[in-house]
Amino acid sequence: MSSWKLAREVARAGELGVVSGTAMDVVLLRWLQDGDPGNLYRNALKSFPDQGMAQRFIDKYYVEGGKAAEKPYAPLQMWQLNASQALREACVLGNYCEVRLPPQPSNLSNRGLSLWARVGQG
After folding, report:
1. How far apart are CA 92 and CA 38, in angstroms?
2. For residue 1, what pLDDT is reported?
3. Exposed e or buried b for every residue in 28-48, given b needs 16+ CB within 10 A?
4. How confident is the model at residue 117 (pLDDT cuts 50, 70, 90)?
5. CA distance 84 to 77
6. How far apart are CA 106 and CA 116, in angstroms?
7. What are the distances in angstroms from CA 55 to CA 9, 61, 92, 120?
8. What is the pLDDT of residues 10-35, one digit of tens each?
9. pTM (predicted TM-score)
């Protein structure tokens, strides 16, 4: 399991490059708050089937130029059995982006996604 960068290289070699889907909601949220360097995640979201969902997330979390270094990241709710719609959407969007990246994948058919989540009781 790895990030999209390592999965891309493994797929290029003809093997199954597996992306870790753990905490991709947080990765997406923080990347957008850091200003989305290289416009990678916003570009990936342009091909997401539900553009309303993608745009809501961008509108809420994207910070042009990135947040100030001393400012904390906006939090996401901790996963629970009855997770909010916003948290479920963040998870879907984050994992979609991680599989879509890099922007011009050479072979998406050789990529997989491994999902793990720890659900809190509370």
Report:
1. 21
2. 46
3. bbebbbeebeeebbeebbeeb
4. low
5. 8
6. 26
7. 30, 10, 13, 28
8. 878 888 777 777 888 999 999 999 99
9. 0.79
